[in-house]
Amino acid sequence: MSGRNHMKLCFASRSENESFARVAVAAFASQLDPTMEQLDEIKTVVSEAVTNAIIHGYDSRPDGVVTIEAWIEGDTFSMSVSDEGKGIEDLELARQPLYTSRPELERSGMGFTIMENFMDEFEVFSAPNEGTRLVMKKRIESKKALYN
Amino acid sequence: MRLQVELEQHRNVLVVRLKGELDHHTADLVRFKMEDAILRGRCDHVVLSLKDLTFMDSSGLGVILGRYKQIKSRGGKMAVCDVQPSVKRLFELSGMFKILALHDSERSALASLEVVS
Predict the structure, then answer these.
(1) Structure ipTM
(2) Which chain A residues touch B if contact means CB-CB below 8 Å?
(3) Number of Cα atoms under 13 Å in the Cβ half of residue A122
């Protein structure tokens, strides 16, 4: 693919949009001809990021907006997931495996760990009462390139 | 419905078949259906049968962990069977197989629990 491709998606912070976001982003990423495993990883990461925005960013209020932007450039898939919610106070703590700020909701505390494991690069930008933005990258070695 | 929860009782074991996608949106359904069945109390153990579970994220891990704690506090065990590769990876990543036994089929999962009961 020549040049850079881009998409942007904004939707209400409602849990029924989690599957919509997974499917939409996976369809976009499919342009890189990923394996099933890579596509599952991307879907899982989208699900974690959007769920975090809804539960933690907006405290499960349905009137927030979640924004996903994704880019394809060369063999690299990049994505940002942002909310304008309450932000994360202690980023280091939030990134600890098994830590959850909402144990009463039966959260596993594995969201950040999964995102970090499934993507090649992962960064979090957050400020209290301004929101959170996750930025990540994944290289998809094209099957086409391997055959040539 | 994006997720179907099918419950079946085999003697003192509750077999839970999940079909579809288990995420934050569908986790409550699993929680309430399983909680209800466990509290009504004819089951000691649980088998999670996941052949048709096509997607799961950390919200799914959370609800499974919650039911594991519930059944364990009543002295029971939980086993999983027929797990798809993507779901298996998530279980591995989170160390769930340290507490849940993995089986190839419902039959072998049931057999393992009937021995302990």
Answers:
(1) 0.92
(2) 15-16, 18-19, 22, 36-37, 40, 43-44, 47-48, 51, 54-55, 105-111, 113-114, 117
(3) 16
